[in-house]
Amino acid sequence: MEPSQSPSLHKRLQAMFTALDKHIRGIRLYRGEGRIVEQMGAELRDAVAAVVRDGPVTVRIAPFGVAVDGEPVTDSDNRPPYLFRLYLDGVRELTFLPGLEGDELERFVELLSEEPPEGEDMVTRLWRADLRHVQHYAVDRFAERAAVHEGDASGLVTGRAGRSLRSSDQAGGAELAMSATDVRALHTEDVAAWVQRARCALAASDNEQELARELRDAWDQAVDLARFLAIAATAEGPDAETASPMVLGVYDAALARGDAAGVARMLGRVAEPDVDGTPALRAVREALLEPPRMQRLGELLARHPDPLMPVVLRLVPVGRDGLLALLETLDAPDLAARIQDALAEAGVDLTPLYARRLQSDDPDEVVAAVEALGRVGGREAVHALVRALDSPLGVVRKAALRAMRGRYDETARVALGHALRDPDPDNRLMALEILSSSGDPRVTWLLRSAAEHPDFETHSLEEQRAILEGLARVRDPRTIDYFEGLLAKHTAWGGGNLVPLQLLAVEALEAIGTEAARDALRKSSRRWLLAAEVKTAARTVLGRWGGAQ
Asked: Which of 45, 63, 263, 426 has the greatest number of C-beta atoms within 10 Å?
């Protein structure tokens, strides 16, 4: 058994990397000072000495951590971030030589524990450190193991795909067009190459088309992208508080080229509940769900709702602001309605969104926003509906009045008063209904103003009744004065519509039922110029009250 293959060395390496990780964590926790840090440093020196006591030892740096002879040394579920940073920057092997101790060991630990300066990778830092007893082997991140000529891609492809490629060459078919990047991407194990697209010519031959399809299918597997996101998002460490630029670049590229499936997979990953427990993934989620980025999703969602819509709905608990921004650019009413319903069910206040839509030039969109505000309710929603009452479009004003039923607010009083003169009688009746049922004594002057308007007697009896019944419900002394004045008019003054109005005034005074209302009826029942049927109605009411005389 070779020394590097012995179980004893494997255990010593495990002990060394455990001590290294503890020491680095201690440095970060205690700022590199104190007795505990010194003790951890001593444990690491002992562990390193045990590893190199029989000679140089080489370990491989892999995505899952450290390995020796294909056997993992570190726990892949608890991979230290600095090891993965080494891998990302191209370091594939580290060789530890006898004599690694003292200041040189401390410099090595310091190199691993510190964040690299901007624009400098770990390979550069190792070179600058000039460590005599730690050697490293690094590769081009896009060319790892690409030991073939750019024009000979067949050596990189094995199995049926490789046989197809070679048989195509032998048959004298059109040559497979693969760039150097395509070749390197096929052969690399580096995550940065996972985002590369093969650009093989699809029209060369049947065999080559099959190869291209296999390459695309391999990329489109969800497990590949999920693995990429899980690793790349934590490239700066699981506790990183900023989103990985590489992840954001991949997402933006997928969004730009219309890759609905890729976008859906990445959004689906950040919608998982375990993201909250990893700061690095949480930072990615926050970046992907930022309003500007979500606004760009609208067009793609409208074109490809099947893969995207289920994922978008899963984002409701974690991406409410982003979804509100998405609704601003989503030109698909059915999809927008589903998102709005989901947000409303989750308790999200959609008032600002609908209020902005009131400025649209599309009447249908404005009416839909008004109806939505009516469903939302609340003070801010009523304020937005009040603004809609100023619309020049009768259909918008009608929708706003319908939405305001049962939702009177003092800020709506003046706007509703203006609506009493709306050219549409249905709108006037709805405004009357809202004002007269408000119980606000300050609406009296609005109702009296409408009743005293010159056009009032030309309105329908239904509308006149609504005005007078509204005045009766307010029960203001000035209202009784108005009714008494109306009963004092002679039919010659008011034309044919006066008698029905006076009969309504009698009903209104009966509804008020106060002593002042009774006195007004007594006076009216004794007027010689009052129409007989009006006097009879007044005496009938007084009789029911026991005061006909």
From this structure: 263
Look at residue 210 in the predicted model and tell me its pLDDT: 61
Closest C-alpha to 61, from 22, 32, 93: 93
Q: Which of 396, 412, 435 is the last residue of a domain?
A: 435
Could you give the C-alpha distances from 86 to 64, 141, 295, in angstroms and in order? Answer: 12, 11, 36
Instruction: Let me know if residue 225 belongs to a domain.
Output: no
The reported pTM is 0.43
Verify that 115 and 181 share a domain, yes or no: no
User: Which whole-number Å values give the CA distances from 384 to 25, 58, 236, 357, 378, in the listed order?
Assistant: 55, 70, 46, 10, 10
CA dist., res. 111 & res. 105, Å (int) = 10
Q: How many domains does the chain have?
A: 4
Condensed to tens digits (0 to 9), the pLDDT of residues 352-392 reads: 877 888 888 888 888 888 888 887 777 888 888 888 888 88
Residue 112 in domain: yes
Q: How many CB atoms lie within 10 A of CB 511?
A: 14
- Structural domain that includes position 517: 439-549
Taking the C-alpha atoms of residue 481 and residue 487, their distance in angstroms, rounded to an integer, is 10
Give 428-467 as a 3 state SS string.
Answer: HHHHHHHHHCCCCHHHHHHHHHHHCCCCHHHCCHHHHHHH
Is position 304 within any domain?
A: no
